[in-house]
Amino acid sequence: MRRIVSVFLLLTTLHSFAQDFSCDNPLVKAAYKLAIETVDINIRRGILAAGADYGGEWTRDIAINSWNGVSLLRPEVAEQSLWHVTIKKDTIGHQYWDKIIWVIAAYNHYLITGDKSFLAQAYICSANTMKSLEQKTFDPHYGLFMGPSVFNDGIAAYPKPIFDTLNFSSGVLDYKNSMYMKCLSTNCVYYEAYIDLSKMSIVLHKDKGITINYQQKADRIKRSILKYLYNKDSDSFYYLIDQNGNAHKYQEALGISFAVIFGVINGNAANQLIHHAVVSKYGITSIYPDFPRYSSEHPGRHNNLIWPMVNGFFAQASLAVGDGTSFTKELFGLTHLALDKDKGDYDFREIYNPSNGQPDGGWQPNGSLHPHYHWESCKLQTWSATAYISMILKGLFGLRFEEHSLAFAPYLPSEIHFVEMKNLKYRRSVLNILIKGQGNSIRQFTVDGKRQRNYSISSIIRGTHDIVIEME
């Protein structure tokens, strides 16, 4: 009973400061409300946990959740959580191969809050961590960073020869060849981290040589990604290069999404990449197709299953290339996965089966006593919820946070005719935003009733303002 009362008081307190979201599509409205409640119920002692069945120690979870909406909607929680996964605010914590994603989240947090004191310490933490990782995990032969792919800490995410049939551990780091592979998603994150470090250095007035150094390193890793992990003939990316130098032709959804979002690839090549991606009935799967040891009847936990966090980024990448159809499929795919009685049943679960939409944790070894183990799909998964929040904020509302402004690039599919967000705090202002109409072309943009030709507001704006955007 005490637990129920505590949760009620938590939600009541948080909702008293919450933004007010409205939408004429009742399913989208219900799913967004559920996503916000999922985030709020996973806040424990000021730290955002990864989900009902997880704690708050995961660097990538806190970084992605902050980046995907918590920095905007719950900025104090995001800041406390971001520092929670560092070592005395000096270096970023575990797990080593993808923890540099924290840099992206930290810079995004600054763009939203404008807090330069936070940025100054985040820059130190980011620069120290990057220097250490350059010394330990960079492969100078390829010009790429080594280690597993982003978030995929389970061996089910990897084909042979990374996978070893004589090893029954679930953790990828227990496999000796894992440290030598070069993965698409991870190296795209390093690229963006260098870009964001260069931007941080400019804001903080660091020596120009430092900025140029980060920019040059970003350029070099981008060239290496395109040289070793991109196939021009098929307009596709390889998933990884193994310890023997062989490239593996699997579709890594998070990797291709990051490549587009970060601008590793652009123009028609990016359009083709998204347009030709293989997508299941309920959305894109994490890694396609099944590895030989898995199948649709026994799907690998980190293989050909739906991880909604991944779908959130693929939705963002879809809009980056103007593919509203792909975005809409992901939006309503996740809406139904979260809400439908035979699927999530009002629960943003960790993983779903792409064939039937039901929660499915997939198969993966779990020690020598359980070499073929069927895992659970955990409940109330935070980054599944923030993926949906991102689809709303970055997709429907089209929020684009920049150093000196907040720009808008909304998209309303045919199933939605208006969305509205009231009491949205942005730096020193409070915004009431109404988007109405259809499509991705802005017909009229007004602030406090006055029409504007530029679709943005200044980052130094203060007070309460009403923004109305009409689409066509």
Automatic annotation (TrEMBL):
Pfam families documented for this protein: MGH1-like_GH
Span of domain Mannosylglycerate hydrolase MGH1-like glycoside hydrolase: 104-375
Membrane-spanning parts: none
Signal sequence interval, chain numbering: 1-18
Gene Ontology process terms (BP): carbohydrate metabolic process
Superkingdom classification of source: Bacteria
Protein name, entry field: Mannosylglycerate hydrolase MGH1-like glycoside hydrolase domain-containing protein
